[in-house]
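ok trying this again, last paste got cut off
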Amino acid sequence: MSGRPVPINAPLRFKIYFTWGCNLKCPFCYQKDLRGLTAARPIEDFLKLLDELAELGVFEITFSGGEPFSHPRFFDLIDRAVASRMRFSILTNATLIDDEIARRLAATGRCNHVQTSIDGLEQYHDSVRGPGAFRRTMNAIESLHKAGVKTYVNTVMTRNNYRDFIAICRMLEATPASTYRIVSVRDADVDLPDDMIMTSEQLVDSIAELAPVMSELGKMHRTSLQKQLLLEIMGEGPLHAAEHCRTPWTTLAVRPDGGFFSCDETDDALLGWMGCDRVSDIWKSARLARFRSSLCERLALEPDECGDCRYRELCMRYCPLWNHSRFCRLVIEKGLRQRGVIR
């Protein structure tokens, strides 16, 4: 599809962050600065929101928090979505999922997948999330698999775990998870200090490790950081990304305090409030239209940016809000050539 995306009549997807509560206290949690500033809305408000979304014809709900399973009435939301014939996915640390919960999710017949995180090998994961967290999450993946629920795993690479990159991949290959994705701190919705972000040299090291064994890692998602970069540099991936991010044209979200927003990756102003503004009005509002327009305008490439680098469109055009926040592909390519990974 070329040109500007065309707004549709209602969101296709809606993300519902309905609780600040969580059973873990991860130091990099993206919500840690918001917790305690505002109170979460009553669950009845989110049930009413689901009714409104069903009327609009929203196809899919993503439930998140906080930790969704820490809320005693989470299944009230799931049941309401299912009764309205909407499908759903869940973002969770998975430590509270057991066989019974997995069977309940499967019994709905409308759970697309459960996404969780494994931060590294067991010792590192537990050092970040707390003693025993690794084993509880792994047990949950097993329970979900037995029940027939797909599980996706995200792993964030940092300076502290990148040396275990291949060992982590082989560990995840051995789990019943459907797929896993390796991301950098820059691509993840986390809040880590700069001294935990991998350097370009460290990223090159991990890609060099991946190259000879990539064919053995069948569950690794194509958009995993090292795999995606290696394929692009080898000419097996696109050199031109999608002209626009589609999220503001397909998706809306709500925070636990009832604030509606469009994009997880920006600090743009809230678009409205649950109970005060209707989703249909927000979707067609001038404020959201201006935000969409600003994305398209920011896709214009400045002539003095990055010269005529062949990766310029990939780095600059996919998400203009992340300009220059990702690793320079030209630097990565040079490093891989120096190591003899590519010719």
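PB: full thing came through this time. The first strand starts at residue 13 and ends at 17.
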